[in-house]
Write a structure and sequence with these properties.
heterodimer, A: mainly alpha, two-stranded antiparallel sheet, 2 strands, 1% strand, B: mainly alpha
């Protein structure tokens, strides 16, 4: 187990390193740097002014040196005013050291957000909390409903109820967030007026049923069908197993068999499916947050990408890749834990 | 301004879609008559979900083909007085109705949904095919040889899979990146895969028959070279097709996003199939590894792959919509469904009619593909 974990963590670290290097390369492409310089300088700056801004703020240093400095394995050198020779901080809102120090991600310094004009940690902290809340509610709605649908339809394969529920599941997997969002907003916000079509107020005044229901239900619908289909397939397989027939033949009632014998084994697959759903949910959350103007991680990511906010974008990708890899690991360990046949190997 | 009533709107819309109904009737009628001879396709017709899936996919396929005859107005044309017109409003100059109303920029919503199907139905299947050739070409050796090849390729696949898709799109489909050689380099690599796949396929299969080999290789080189020149360099020697850099960019991003998933499926199938007796028999005969992979393993993996491709075209459609929704890659006036939904959802408190048709179109097309995939899976499991 220890060597398995060590290997997995090694691969995870390597993946993160490669991924951040790729992102770092892409955000530092010439057109992207230009975009950043244009958004950070006055209107109508000439190309010389843009270039001098990039030089002044250290964007023209060697690529690998800057990546290493971001990572924290190379000292971050302060900006020096060419005239006086005194260190001048790049951004007012971001207290930078006046001497070269190791201050990168490894030291816990994620840098400065050029778009929001704060430290990345100060922006990303509240955003992640908001998104965590959203994801929690999405899962809290989606998972129980999906499991019930899956178990009920897999319980009696081929019955009328099974067929109806299967069609419903397929229909929900065909409805991406931006489609169900539009339809739900039209029905519940424009026509009925029961719910708010915007969650912008959730950041200021806190979440309520009125402003938070649509952002939660929209991604939940899309994911629900998929989990339900997987649960159904797993349930069908278990219900056809020998030991279920034995339990039925020895005279146990149908529902006792389902609850005591089938469920435990049928829920192994959905567990891994739900874990692997996280990355996918993250994409959905981005769409939903943009759609309903909810100030969370997704909005931060889109704003960062739209303005080429280098440090914030790197932090966002680090957060999401960590989430992806961590859920993969949990799903593997959980699968081994839940399934004795794998554990022995 | 004069309006058609809802009944007249429905009637007129059904009439405009006449080419679609006729072709659906012809194709499905013929398929139904010969369903006993059509194998899997014929069996699907006899199941409820399968028939529904075929109808939905067929509807959009024919709508895309006959778009020119279905549309009443140019999907990009703006007629100022029709701005935000309600469904059924009659345009005074031509006397023709804006069946589903006009949008914020005074364009015909009905025509735009139909024109949007053209964009979606060209890009989604082709990008899926590209991703499929990518996944097959890399997945077969990874599963068959295992060890280092597998470790390296799986690592790369997982690397791409751990990329949040939205971030990937924002980084790869931005207008700025078109100024760099990256999209063209990636395109050159990606579009090489189908050519390599076909060349190896023909080479390993027809090695013993030089004449057949030469003919097939020549055809592959010609068709492959033509497509390569068209897509990668936007320099179609025949001048038939035009692929703009931003469209190419969408192709690459979508293929990159769904390639690794297909890779994992092909790899898993190969791991399973390579232990079968007929593979061992081929190995004992001394067949080359590529012959075994492409002529023994691949044909036997086709069932799950067809089902997955069906699902994946739907997923690609959703990805395309997401690209449009975030305003990435597609030109702002593009009639594709994602862009339309984005544009219309900004004013949804005022007018719902520009958003609803595109949303329902997206949903029905993906639903059709998913139903079809489900029916295919059910039928192939039954055999």
């Amino acid at each position: 187990m220890a060597s398995f974990l060590a290997r997995r963590f090694g691969v995870m670290a390597l993946t993160m390193l490669c991924l951040t290097l790729i992102v770092f390369y892409l955000v530092n492409l010439e057109p992207n740097l230009k975009k950043l310089a244009i958004s950070q300088t006055e209107m109508h700056a000439t190309s010389e002014e843009l270039e001098s801004w990039l030089v002044k703020n250290g964007y023209r240093r060697p690529f690998l040196e800057r990546y290493a400095a971001w990572l924290g394995v190379w000292p971050k050198s302060p900006n020096v005013d060419p005239k006086t020779g005194a260190p001048s901080p790049r951004f007012q809102y971001c207290d930078e050291a006046s001497t070269p120090v190791f201050s990168g991600v490894l030291e816990g310094d994620f840098g400065c957000s050029t778009k929001f004009k704060v430290k990345v940690a100060a922006k990303l902290g509240p955003a992640l909390r908001a998104t965590g809340l959203l994801m929690f509610w999405v899962l809290a709605i989606m998972v129980p409903v999906a499991l019930v649908i899956g178990v009920v339809s897999g319980m009696r394969e081929g019955s009328r109820l099974d067929r109806v529920l299967s069609i419903v599941s397929i229909a929900t997997t065909s409805t991406p967030e931006y489609v169900s969002g539009v339809v739900l907003t039209i029905i519940f916000a424009t026509w009925l007026g029961w719910l708010n079509g915007s969650a912008a107020s959730a950041t200021g005044t806190g979440i309520t049923f009125y402003n938070f229901t649509l952002p939660v239900v929209t991604p939940a619908i899309y994911g629900m069908g998929y989990v339900a289909r997987m649960t159904r397939a797993s349930m069908v397989e278990v219900m056809n197993a020998q030991y279920i027939r034995t339990a039925r033949l020895k005279g146990l009632g149908f529902f006792a068999v389902v609850l005591k014998h089938a469920l435990r084994n049928a829920l192994i697959t959905p567990f891994t499916v739900i874990m692997l759903l996280f990355p996918w949910l993250l994409t959905g959350v981005v769409i939903v947050e943009v759609m309903y103007r909810y100030q969370g991680f997704g909005m931060a990511l889109v704003d960062a990408a739209g303005n080429n906010d280098i440090d914030l974008l790197l932090a966002c990708s680090l957060v999401s890749v960590t989430l992806v890899l961590a859920t993969q690991l949990i799903s593997d360990i959980g699968y081994a834990y839940l399934n004795p046949r794998i554990r022995v190997q | 301004m004069q309006f058609l009533d809802p009944f007249q709107i429905t009637l007129r819309a059904l009439y405009q879609l006449l080419p679609v109904w006729l072709s659906l009737a012809v194709v499905l009628g013929a398929s139904f008559a010969f369903r006993r001879k059509l194998g899997l396709y014929g069996q699907i017709l006899e199941t409820g979900p399968g028939l529904a899936g075929l109808l939905l996919v067929g509807f959009w396929l024919f709508a895309a083909i006959f778009a020119k005859w279905i549309m009443l107005f140019d999907p990009l044309g703006q007629i100022a007085e029709m701005k935000d017109a309600l469904p059924g409003a009659i345009e005074p100059a031509s006397g023709l109705p804006y069946l589903f109303g006009g949008d914020r920029l005074a364009r015909d919503v009905f025509g735009r949904v139909v024109a949007g199907s053209r964009v979606v139905l060209v890009i989604a299947p082709l990008a899926t095919l590209l991703a499929l050739s990518l996944g097959i070409t890399l997945g077969l050796p990874a599963g068959y040889f295992g060890r280092r090849v597998d470790a390296l390729l799986s690592f790369l696949a997982n690397l791409v899979l751990s990329f949040p898709i939205i971030l990937l799109f924002y980084l790869l489909v931005s207008p700025g990146i078109l100024e760099t050689p990256i999209p063209y380099a990636l395109a050159a690599i990606f579009f090489l895969f189908p050519i390599v796949l076909f060349v190896v396929l023909i080479w390993s299969g027809y090695k013993a028959r030089p004449v057949q080999l030469a003919i097939r290789l020549a055809v592959t080189a010609l068709v492959g070279g033509w497509l390569f020149a068209t897509f990668v360099f936007d320099a179609d020697p025949l001048g038939i097709l035009r692929v703009s850099p931003s469209t190419l960019n969408i192709f690459i991003a979508v293929a990159l996003a769904s390639g690794p998933g297909i890779f994992r499926i092909v790899r898993g199938l190969t791991l399973d199939i390579k232990t079968r007796e007929y593979v061992l028999a081929a190995q004992t005969r001394g067949e080359s590894p590529w012959y075994i992979m492409l002529w023994e393993i691949l044909p036997n993996a086709r069932g799950p792959l067809i089902v997955d491709s069906c699902l994946r075209i739907g997923y690609t459609t959703i990805l395309l919509g997401a690209l449009g929704y975030f305003g990435l890659g597609m030109p702002p006036e593009s009639p594709d469904w994602g862009t339309t939904i984005k544009e219309a959802s900004r004013f949804m408190r005022l007018y719902i009619h520009p958003a609803l048709p595109a949303a329902l179109a997206m949903m029905s097309f993906v639903l059709g593909l998913n139903l079809l995939a489900d029916a295919l899976r059910e039928q192939s499991l039954r055999d």
